[in-house]
Design a protein that fits this description.
Radius of gyration: 21 Å
Strand content: 25-35%
Low-confidence stretches: 1-15, 128-133
Order of helices and strands: HEEHEEHHEHEHEEHHHEEHEEHHHE
Number of strands: 13
Helix content: 25-40%
Largest sheet: 9 strands, antiparallel
Structural class: alpha+beta
Amino acid sequence: MTTTSTTAAESLARQMSNRVSQSVFDGSRLRVVLLVDVHEGAQQQFLEAYEQLCNQVASVPGHVSDQLCQSVENPSQWLITSEWESAPPFLTWVNSEEHVRMVEPLHSCVRDTRSLRFHIVRETGGPSQADPGERRLQASPRIGDGLIRHALTFTVKPGSEAAVAAILSDYDPPEARVDDTTRLCRTSLFMHGNRVVRAIEVRGDLMAALRHVARQPQVRAVEEAINPYLEQDRDLDDPESARVFFTRAALPAVHHVTAGEPDPETERHALYYPARPGCGLRLAELLARQDEAVADDPRSPVVRSTLFERDQVVVRLIDVRGGLDAADPALVLGIPDPGPLAELTTLPGDGDLTRLLKLARMQLVTDRRSAEA
């Protein structure tokens, strides 16, 4: 299992500036909170499934501890908390097929779940009394921009790319307002060969926004229209089939940096870096370090950069000033030295950055911004 080394993570944490509003590479410990709503009468079944899962998770590298709590007001509500040495080992596990198999026994007794992840910034008592150099807490909290970034990725059958692109580009956008506190701000959809990536920006509650989008008739029609072309079969009328598909399709944002003020003239692009087996997070960390290093460089045309990673899929969503073709390919790719990149990706390692940029560049299918964003 690939994880980020403590030394590297701590070094990155020291170097990060306030321009970074989101990162899993801070090196601090991670607290994961899972809110669970159990079917009435299934509490004992849920407890037994948890005990089995707990024994398996205990051997996962990076796992420290976990707790299971039951609500004193409503016995159907449970809380699972776990602590991890840092975010990368947790993400390696939670995005794996091993995790999909581990949690399968829980599905028949659980009505709904919600997962939240937090870096530990401060603590009192216990380990906090240890040497501060060993605590690995964040020196300061991240100053975000109010947006939550998330993406989905899946593959379609080779030869169907043109048909899928036409379907995905030709539908009315969903209503931007989700509720009084949540808005859809932007949806960007790209393709690279037969891989589709849909990135969204949400202000408010991400899960509420995803459920809102899934209920929109025009979105449901598009999802049904592309079903015959998907490499992974799914039945959206079967909750379990839909859950497994979207679990595997989730492409979390692991790093975001803003290098300048918002500029309506920037162009949105996406670059796909196919990682070698077990190298996805290491590759994402390499790109994160470079994005942070050039955030204050006036030569860089990249105004904002968001990294998404899952397993061997690494996607970098960038807003570029002045257009992609006129930019220095090293600055746009985020790799001044192609040597380390060649070790972590399946992209050609011949050092030709112009060719690399052409190979990594994704096809823009649609980019829609809400008027309220």
